[in-house]
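stage 2 :: seqdesign
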């Protein structure tokens, strides 16, 4: 199948497929005599794997590691689990950071009157940061 067909079937845009090829996540497609890329069912499965892993928040490098494990029939599930556990821990850390950011912003929103007056704690906080504050 050509890049348009595999893009449509996988839901991965052609530009992204080319990018994945350029960084080695997807093997370079064979070329037809007319120069068009030709993809296989294995390529489709690989794209679906990558798309799902990315939707779970895995980085490109983590996806590369997962692909290696997926394609290595001698792998151990312990190796896969260890990678996933690290990712869950990173997500937990990010969630805590986002909660803190949300709390700070919600507090600033509460303090801002949101009326015709020019004073605004949100802008004051951002201005303080611009001047080298927190």
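stage 2 :: out
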């Amino acid at each position: 199948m050509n890049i348009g067909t595999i893009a449509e079937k996988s839901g991965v845009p052609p530009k992204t497929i080319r990018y994945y090829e350029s960084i080695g996540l997807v093997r370079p497609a064979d070329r037809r005599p007319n120069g068009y890329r030709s993809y296989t069912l294995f390529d489709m499965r690989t794209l679906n794997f990558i798309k799902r892993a990315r939707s779970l928040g895995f980085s490109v490098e983590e996806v590369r590691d997962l692909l290696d494990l997926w394609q290595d029939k001698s792998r151990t599930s312990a190796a896969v689990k260890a990678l996933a556990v690290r990712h869950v821990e990173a997500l937990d850390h990010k969630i805590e950071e986002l909660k803190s950011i949300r709390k700070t912003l919600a507090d600033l929103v509460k303090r801002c009157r949101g009326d015709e007056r020019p004073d605004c704690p949100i802008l004051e906080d951002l201005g303080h940061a611009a001047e080298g504050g927190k």
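stage 3 :: structure notes
- The domain at 3-75 is CATH 1.10.1660.10 (Multidrug-efflux Transporter Regulator; Chain: A; Domain 2).
- The mean pLDDT is 94.
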